[in-house]
Design brief:
This protein is an alpha+beta fold. It is 37% helix and 18% strand. It contains eleven helices and nine strands. Helix 1 packs parallel to helix 4 and helix 5 crosses helix 10. The radius of gyration is 35 Å and the shape is elongated. Strands 1-4-5-9-8-7-6 form a seven-stranded mixed sheet, with helices on both faces. Strands 2-3 form a two-stranded antiparallel ribbon. The chain folds into two domains: 78 residues; 236 residues, 2-Layer Sandwich (BirA Bifunctional Protein, domain 2), CATH 3.30.930.10. Strand 6 and strand 7 form a beta hairpin. It binds phenylalanine.
Length: 342
Amino acid sequence: MWNFQEIEEQVKQEIAAVADAKALEAFRIKFLGKKGLVQEIYASLGTLPKEEKPVVGKGANDLRNLVTALMKEKAGSLQKSGVKEDAIDVTIPGVAQLQGHKHILTQTVDEICKIFEGLGFVVHESPEMETEFHNFSALNIPVDHPSRDAFDTFYLETKDPDAKGRYKLLRSHTSPGQIHIMKEFEPPLAVVIPGKVYRPDAVDASHSFMFHQIEGLLVDKDVKFSDLKGLLTEFCKRLFGKDIKMRFRPHFFPFTEPSAEVDISCYICGGKGCSVCGRNGWLEILGCGMVHPHVFEAVGYKKGKYTGLAFGMGVERMAMLKHGIHDIRIFYENDIRFLKQF
Ligand code: PHE
């Protein structure tokens, strides 16, 4: 009932006439499609006398293999010869693509984090919406501390009853990240936490209601102040160059004791005094100290078991110092003439 020889001839003739991808697809549908010839032959098996079944079955298999092989061969030769309708005119001038790159603040974050990764730290994230517990109480910041004032912190109004006691403010520093990390992990810990922070400051050349910080935290048994000094000295040399001089000035933060601020010698004038350093030869770059025992208590660490160091720096400030930028607002204006310099 099926003349396979004839069918084979027909297949060979038809494939020879196929000249493009569209015709090849039509050929495939005609023979291998759901309603194609091969299927039709298979479907007819049921109606055939018993002795014919194996012959026709084999014929259908052979036909399917033949069609597949011919199609493969054809596809190869079509590709090689380059089918006209899909061809590209390579002589048409291209459309220039504007290539973007990372914002200078992102580059600065990456550069700083990379230095700390090289020193064994892990980069972590922490939420921008915070609770008073994480942003203040756990960090030993008392209820009457001025930074808790609504003039110094953005408080969030929420009508969601489920949010009660969870999201209350926009973090005013990245230090609540310390609390999240310590609640989640047991020491030894070495993390840096970059991110945005928010303070309701009037915007001027050195203030913005949103800016970026990078927090650092290292907790283990026996961490000493000399570790803090050594670590930050190495960091500053890697970021600003090995000739940079540093000084640690005593300072106060509620969540570290003792605390210090770190200055570097002005990289512009080398410490002689110029307009960038306000003529005193030093530039303040970060706050730091040894983790206060009350903070360990707040996260549930056993008293006296661990010691730790912490530090926090402003990313905009670092970028401004490194690149001689005088106005913080320019970071956020999206002026391509400024951005493409970096
Ligand atoms: N959170 C402090 C600030 O925003 C910086 C800091 C971090 C100080 C960690 C000491 C230790 O000013």
